[in-house]
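pasting for ref
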Amino acid sequence: MIALVARYLVRAGMAEEVAGILREFAPLALGEPGCAAFSVHVALDDPRRILLYEQYRDEAALAAHRETGHYRSVIEQQVLPRIENRERAVYRVLD
């Protein structure tokens, strides 16, 4: 199992919109066969800071996630243009 942690800094004035888009995107990601978890978190002190925590069966499942139509249409076309900064890290989940 692997985990992806993504940290977004959303452009000014777009935090609520991006949070809503991600809230609607989460069930689509969770419907993928290799996705075990997908949760969206908003910082208490700054709604422009959003953290995504995702778990996938393996690296192939993560790669498949990035090839889905919903990833391309929602994340690439709707979310990323509204992001000022993005950091991502992939971890191996310890059993």
